[in-house]
Amino acid sequence: MSETVEKTGTGAILYDPTVLNHIEDASFSPAAWQRASGIEGRLRSAGRGATTVVSDGRRTFVIRHYHRGGLASRVTSDAYLWLGENRTRSFLEFRLLAVLSDKGLPVPRPAAARYRRRGLFYTADLITEYAPGIRPLSLRIADDTGRDFWRRLGAGISRFHDAGVNHADLNAYNVQVDGNDDVFVLDFDRGRLLAQGAWRERNLARLHRSLEKVRSLDDRVRFSATDWQALCEGYREAARSA
Q1: 85-108 pLDDT, tens digit each
Q2: Would you name the residues annotated as active-site residues?
Q3: HSE, side-chain direction, 13 A CA sphere, residue 6
Q4: Cα Rg, the chain, nearest whole Å
């Protein structure tokens, strides 16, 4: 995947010219597109970002504005400490997604990333290609599932881990499935490529906690210890055969 960096009056834009042959600051505003619709709330897998699906009439993209979480959000909603252009959240995620896309992993293809700097702080945005036909795991498991579904889910997650992908917040919202129940993963902010290690188990533990929470919030979900066991079996078998 190729990349180009263009400086702006307030920062810079990183983009893939094979995806977008023209990019400017206005492109990160939904108002600049023919059609735009917001994705709201955790149950729609918007994460902490303000996320909008936009279209130019031919292609569809997702724009995400980065927002702070946790205690930091009490101080500022979207400003991050400036540590250099190549350490901005948007540039890091763009480049990680580019690597994962090139590896053939099921992730959104990055189109453009931007930062806007003001003194010691900056704000960030990311544009990715829209992936049609996927929905959050949190919604899929409100429908009937079976042992094969959970085993396939575990195998899909193992594929990422075998490639060294440490997702910073693997949960039932950014793990998505398509119409064939194949895994697709979103939101790689703070994700990294690492040597194999204990982070794999921490990723799985985070997903398990998220699934338990979804079950507690939605009476339609029947997630059980047996389901989790099937997921782990599929994960281990895929890891052994990798």
Answers
A1: 999 999 999 999 999 999 999 999
A2: 169
A3: 12
A4: 18
Which pair of tokens denotes residue 175? 């793990």
φ, ψ (nearest 5 deg) of residue 189? -60, 125
Please report, for the chain, the start and end positions of each structural domain, with discontinuous segments joined by +: 4-129, 135-241
Residues 6 or more apart in contact with residue 123 via CB below 8 angstroms: 65, 66, 78, 79, 80, 115, 116
**For residue 96, which amino acid is it?**
L
What's the CA gap between 3 and 19, in Å, rounded? 10
Q: Quote the DSSP letter at residue 185.
A: E
Whole-structure pTM value: 0.92
* pLDDT tens track for 47-71: 445 789 999 888 999 999 999 876 6
| Superfamily designation of domain 135-241 | Transferase(Phosphotransferase) domain 1 (1.10.510.10)
Residue 22 pLDDT level (bands cut at 50, 70, 90): confident
Q: Is the dihedral of CA 185, 96, 234, 216 positive or negative?
A: negative
Q: Distance (Å, rounded) from C-alpha 117 to C-alpha 51? A: 21
| E strands, 159-205, in order | 165-166, 175-177, 183-185, 192-193
Distances (CA, A) of 112 to 13, 138, 156: 7, 28, 27
Nearest to 119 by CA among 78, 80, 163: 80
- Which residue do the tokens 């398509």 mark? 178
Cα separations (Å) of 43 from 10, 78, 171, 236, 239? Answer: 34, 21, 11, 29, 30
